[in-house]
Design a protein that fits this description.
Neuraminidase; five-stranded antiparallel beta sheet; 4 helices; 28 strands; globular
């Protein structure tokens, strides 16, 4: 009898092992939420490298505004810095009326940083400094471009010593990979798209309005009308290789007053094979609470497939912070260039103010936009500030990256630079993505 019980016990244990192995195999299939680490739903850069000291305050690496998940890795990501440590001052330039930013380290060069999530920490694996097409180090200082393009004045200290614009100045906000050896980043200043070698960090081509080194290819001139420092904020590429970029805010087209109130934003698509550039329209959120329409900003986006994307849209004012994920579907959206070949609207596109008025007057259809997730209600910490990076991990999980602005800010109370102690963190969120119809 005892032998029989031992046999049953062995069979039971063997069956449990088989079930465990089957469940484990299922958990490793693409699209399974069990791919996400169960121990750490978030990881932060706990020991960021020191950049230097400014006015007695230590400034550390951070300001990561773009993120790419490395498929088939052990939860590894590429992060990219924006324009470097910069501190907004409360006053404006007395001559131009432009906002003033202090760049305490004018020689700072943006980097592509490879990190790995491990036990709640972001381990730095590789660091690559980025360069322009001539091999010169990039800079986050304002770019010397078209008239009135800068929109900001750069100081190197609080005493008012001006820093000149930089020919390779970029404010990088998003990245996407098109292969194992090259990637694209989108930036706000010009705005522009950069194609970069992963091995060297050197740019191969730059596409911007009326210029760049894109082998004769330029962005539409209307993109010069971007709001000050609100050019491209999001970029993504689908399986078909097309590159999609979304502006942070609507263009000031035809003027600033229109740009601050309109909800009509522009999304650019570039096909590297046909070298064709096309534009579609995206409707920003309406005012909510204390957050005005102009307070809403795009954070980043990631591709689900060739036609659908997940977009971060966030807004903040007077202590109120909203952050939401939306599903964008390009199918059915009007290609502006094709529409304008046959029709001439009475007004600039942004002047129609919202999607409904635009469609009634012009028959132009914006991209379909569906709410997916309220990040704040889902647990995104308000203290982390702006969510500016997103990556699709699997069919039901996204990773969100916050921009900590290098952990420094200006205190109006002490009238000095202070540390905010906000860390760079990646957090996981569950989303429900509808099946493709």
């Amino acid at each position: 009898m005892r032998n029989l019980m031992n046999i049953y016990t062995s069979l039971f244990i063997f069956t449990l092992c088989l079930c465990f192995l089957e469940l484990r195999a299922q958990s490793e299939q693409p699209g399974s939420n069990r791919q996400v680490p169960e121990v750490a739903e978030a990881a932060c850069l706990q020991e960021p490298p020191l950049i230097g000291a400014f006015n007695g305050v230590n400034v550390f690496e951070g300001g990561f505004s773009g993120m790419h998940y490395i498929p088939d890795s052990n939860f590894e990501f590429y992060l990219v810095n924006d324009r470097g440590p910069n501190i907004p001052l409360p006053q404006s330039d007395s001559i131009t009326g432009s906002g003033i930013k202090v760049f305490p380290f004018p020689e700072y060069t943006q980097k592509l940083v490879r990190v790995r999530m491990a036990s709640g920490n972001l381990e730095v694996l590789e660091v690559l400094e980025l360069k322009d097409t001539g091999g010169n180090s990039l800079s986050g200082l304002p770019h010397l471009g078209a008239e009135n393009e800068r929109g900001e004045i750069a100081w190197k200290n609080t005493a008012g010593d001006v820093v000149n614009p930089h020919p390779s100045g970029v404010d990088i906000e998003a990245i996407t990979f098109d292969s194992d050896s090259t990637f694209w980043f989108a930036e706000e200043y010009r705005p522009s798209l950069w194609h970069v070698q992963l091995k060297t960090g050197k740019a191969m081509a730059v596409i911007e309005p009326d210029g760049g080194s894109g082998n004769g290819l330029s962005l539409p001139m209307v993109f010069r009308k971007r709001a000050p420092n609100r050019g491209f904020e999001a970029i993504a590429s689908g399986p078909d290789g097309r590159i999609h970029a979304l502006l942070q805010s609507p263009l000031w087209n035809p003027d600033a007053k229109t740009g601050k109130f309109t909800r009509i934003n522009r999304m650019l698509t570039f096909d590297p094979v046909s070298r064709k550039l096309t534009t579609r329209l995206y409707e920003m959120n309406a005012p909510r609470g204390k957050v005005s329409g102009y307070d809403w900003k795009i954070g980043d986006m990631t591709a689900i497939d060739n036609e659908r994307f997940i977009v971060i849209e966030h807004g903040a004012r007077s202590g109120e912070l909203y952050a939401d994920l939306y599903l964008l579907d390009l199918r059915g959206a009007t290609v502006i260039e094709e529409h304008l070949e046959k029709h001439t609207p009475k007004h600039e596109i942004e002047a129609y103010m919202n999607a409904s008025t635009l469609y009634q007057a012009t028959q132009i259809q914006t991209v379909q936009k569906t709410h997916l997730l309220d990040l704040i209600k889902a647990g995104y910490p308000i203290t982390h500030g702006k969510p500016e990076g997103i990556a699709l991990i699997d069919a039901s999980t996204v990773a969100i990256l916050n921009d900590n602005d290098y952990g420094v800010d200006w205190s109006t109370e002490s009238e000095s630079v202070v540390q905010t102690y906000v860390q760079t963190c990646i957090r996981f969120f569950t989303v429900s993505i509808p099946e493709l119809e």
